Every structure is written in structure tokens, then in C-alpha cells.
What we know:
It is found in: Cytoplasm. The chain has helices spanning 2-9, 22-33, 49-58, 78-86, 90-96, and strands at 13-17, 39-42, 67-70, 73-76.
Amino acid sequence: MDKLQKMISEKSVVIFSKNSCCMSHTIKTLFLDLGVNPTIYELDEINRGKEIEQALAQLGCSPTVPVVFIGGQLVGGANQVMSLHLNRSLIPMLKRVGAIWL
């Protein structure tokens, strides 16, 4: 859990993902299209990925990918991120943490 907290707090936007997950691809594409340079951890490729996935589950993340943190705070998965984007709350949130300068 300490390792997870360190990973989350080091960058303004952190995405936990798996290459095999189509929703992860969608969320990564959204952030890149918005001009964000997120830190992306591919849990199916990194050491201790299963361990990190279990820690995400303990935080209440279900499913465990994709999971997005903005400014060190858990935003949630694909549904939550898309809801924020559709109600025009995502971009102001990204601006507040310095992830974009639109």
C-alpha cells in the first residue's frame, strides 16, 4: 500500500491500466487527446503488478483497471472519468493540478 501511495502522489495524473483492457485504452486516449501527459502503469507489464492491483481493490476500485488518480485523489474508473468529462468537470480538475493549460 505504501508503494501505491508513492506512485499516486508523485505525478498530477496517474492511470493504472492493462494493455489487454479496451476501456483502459479509451481512458488513456482521452487524456492524451486532452493534452495531458499522464503517468501510466501497465499492471500486466510491471513488476509487482498483481500486488498493486490488489492494493487498488482494497481502496474500493472495482474493476481494478482502468483507475485514475488526479492530484493524488482517486477519481475512479472509466465510468467516473467519462461522467466527469461529459458534465464538463474533468478539464477544470486537470487545470487545478497543472496537468493542462488550456
